[in-house]
Structure formats: structure tokens, C-alpha cells
Amino acid sequence: MVRYLLKFSYIGTHYRGLQRQPSENFIRDTDSIQGALEAALLTIVPRSVIRPSLCLSSRTDAGVHAFGNSAHVELENKYSTIYKASDIKQKVNRYFFNCNHYIRLLDCTPVTYDFHSRASCKSRTYLYRFMIPKVEEEHRVSLPESIHTFHLRSHNFNIDRARRGTQLFIGKKDFTTFSAKSVTDRKIEYVRSLQSFTLEEAQPLMPFDPLSQNFTYWHFICKGKSFLYKQVRRMVGALIALGMGHITEKDITIMLQVPSHQNLHPRVIPVPSHGLHLLNIEYDLDELKRCTIPEEEEPQSKDTVQRCN
């Protein structure tokens, strides 16, 4: 049995979420991205004698997109050989193409059991894309933008005020106020560190579309080791409210200093999911190199597989 690190991208608006819904019986849950990936892995040749079950590095909400999410999966064939990455990518992406899935497998790397897609992650980077009309009455939106970009219906949004507000979130903070309650038995650590948070001007997705000229485009980009449930969408919602003059920097400071699920300002509305994109999952390249198994090596058992130093 060999572990494989997978990197993949998807358009989240076509699925009801990333994570497969739990079920006692195995059902091909192709309405979720995880379920579609696991179904695609069943098509590789020779067929895996164990059912593919992904361990996801990051969980994105329904409607959120990803340019570079990752997961690991364990596969074993009757010949006890390592699958070639090119063969897995070809079979999986052919399945996605034939089934009209908006998912693509970008990379596949055999790794030792010391490498874990979630625990080995060093940082995650998210981008939130939104657009502002140049004229107040203009609300005709280009179709590609409607899938990837939040349409802010205010032409007098204060960019400088929102940009200054991003600095309030930088560093080690208790983000309880900016996280949604989740049903779980495990203890949640709400103190997280945000490494960077910026607001940058962007370009239209389809510049030759006449409708794209009616707006200016902007990206919130934030980077941290880990994020809480809906944290990015709530932080961006607070900055949107700040740029529209609905709240002040003091209001954001209070929400951070007095952390509580009940303390989110009533004028802060979490932004829609379709503007959020998971840009990248970053790993230590030296660690990944040490833990990568050359494809020509014969796999060992889980108990004796080569360990990283």
C-alpha cells in the first residue's frame, strides 16, 4: 500500500461542497468534489484493491473554488507496484472530462507515511475577488465574473479604508468572533496566526467582454497556517462593511478583543462563497523531497515503509 499526495483544482459552484457526506455504505457521491475524486480513482489501471478514501488538506465551503487544493490517498494494486503519476493523472482527468466534471488533477506524488497532506502543511493562501461598479446604475455582469466574483453594489466603496483595516487582522489573534459554529466533538483552537492580508487591484477575467469594462476588480489575499470555519468570508465581510462606512476600525478591534460567536457586528455580513478561491497549499519543499518515493522503487508495507529523517 502506497500513499500518494494529490494536488487538484475545481470550480466549486458546480458542487455542494468539497467533503463527501459520511455514509455507512459506499455510494459514489459525485455531487461533492471528494466523492468525484474518489470515484475517478476507481478507474485507474490496475485497479486498486482498496477503496480510495481521501484525507483532505483543507476543507472549503460549498461554492468555494480552488486553484491548488491537496489531499493524500492510499492505493494498492495486486502487483504491489507503484502507480506512475502520469497514468493516474491521465485516467482521473479522462474520467472528469467524460463525466463533465469541473475538477482537474494537477499532480500526483508517491510519498512515505510520514508525509501528511494536512499536518505537513506550512501555510494556506486564500483570495477573495470582488468588483465595484464604475457607475451606480450599472449592474450588468459578465457571465464568467458572476461565477468567480462578488458584485459589490456600491460605487463609492472606500478602498483605502478597507486596505488599512486588513492590518487589524495580522498576527496571532483569537478569531472566535470571525468563525461560524461547527458541530464537532473535538476541541477547536480559535487562536490562529495570520501571516499576511492585502487588498490589491485586479484585472477582469474576460477583458474583451464589453460588460467587464463597467467595473473595477479587487482581490483580498490572506495567508496563514490554518483557518477556522468561514473565517475568511467573515473577515472580508467586516472589511467590506468598513469600506462602505457601516462599521469602524474600532468595531473590528472590539470583535477581536472580545471574542465570541455572538459578538459579530450586526452590520457585518459574511460575503458569498463564489468569490473565494483557495490559491495554494504550501509544504516544506525539502521535507516533501525527502518523503517522495521514486516511482521505480517497490513499495513496502505500511509498517516497514521508509521513514523521513
Automatic annotation (TrEMBL):
Organism superkingdom = Eukaryota
Query: What InterPro entries does UniProt report for this protein, alphabetically?
Result: PsdUridine_synth_cat_dom_sf (IPR020103), PsdUridine_synth_TruA (IPR001406), PsdUridine_synth_TruA_a/b_dom (IPR020097), PsdUridine_synth_TruA_C (IPR020095), TruA/RsuA/RluB/E/F_N (IPR020094)
| Reaction equation(s) it catalyzes | uridine(38/39/40) in tRNA = pseudouridine(38/39/40) in tRNA
* Its EC number(s): 5.4.99.12
Tell me the ranges covered by the Pseudouridine synthase I TruA alpha/beta domain, including all copies: 167-284
Q: Does the keyword Isomerase apply?
A: yes
Where is substrate bound in this sequence?
Y126
Its GO biological process annotations read: tRNA pseudouridine synthesis
Please name one Pfam family that this protein belongs to: PseudoU_synth_1
Q: Which UniProt keywords apply?
A: Isomerase, tRNA processing
Q: Does the keyword Ligase apply?
A: no
Similarity comment text for this entry: Belongs to the tRNA pseudouridine synthase TruA family.
Q: What is this protein called?
A: tRNA pseudouridine synthase
Traced from the root, the source organism's taxonomic lineage reads: Eukaryota, Metazoa, Ecdysozoa, Arthropoda, Hexapoda
Q: What gene is this protein translated from?
A: LOC105422141
